[in-house]
Amino acid sequence: MRSECINYGYTYESPLPVGRLVYQLADKAQVCTQRSWKRPYGVGLLVAGLDESGAHLYNNCPSGNYFEYQAFAIGSRSQAAKTYLERKFEKFTESSRDDLVKDALFAIRETLQGEKLTSSVCTIAVVGVGEAFNILDQETVQALINEFEISGEEAPINESVAEQSVGDDQRSAAAEEAAPMDI
């Protein structure tokens, strides 16, 4: 990816758009699925970048498919993080940088299944307008984790989810009252 960006910049004297970079990467991965002597890529990538049209987040699949998202998670147990991000993504455009980092940490915490969130299990990188690509050090990430754990913040619960769980409880209570043959 670095080589492609350097070559494009040298040839066209402008930065390579993120979408074109992802397209080229997906094209290389897709060729491997068509040749019997080539082994397909076995890894998906999340590619975040900033170009003249704004910030972008792409998911690159091993099959050569790529999709652009506002927020996304990949990997084992990522469905919990995706669910959290889907509930919150509409507020991301008005959120501050710190709120976005906090939402990322909440999404990661959703995937841990009872484990404690620490800076050793996650890495946070930030890219934005007027801000160079920056990987936050472990001390900073741990301080952010401690900040919302000490204050007792929990991931906000969506009201519709709460109403749905009440409805599920009422349905299960009605099912318990019914005779076995009535169900």
From TrEMBL:
The GO cellular component terms are: proteasome core complex, alpha-subunit complex
BP terms from Gene Ontology: proteasome-mediated ubiquitin-dependent protein catabolic process
Entry EC no(s): 3.4.25.1
Q: Cite the InterPro entries for this sequence.
A: Ntn_hydrolases_N, Proteasome_alpha, Proteasome_alpha-type, Proteasome_sua/b
Q: In Gene Ontology terms, what is one molecular function of this protein?
A: hydrolase activity
| Spans annotated as Disordered | 161-183
> Which of UniProt's keywords are assigned here?
Hydrolase, Proteasome
Q: Where are the transmembrane segments?
A: none
- On whether Hydrolase is a keyword of this UniProt record, the answer is yes
Q: What family is this protein classified in?
A: Belongs to the peptidase T1A family.
Q: Which PANTHER family match?
A: PROTEASOME SUBUNIT ALPHA/BETA (PTHR11599)
What's this protein's name? Proteasome endopeptidase complex
Species assigned in the record = Helianthus annuus
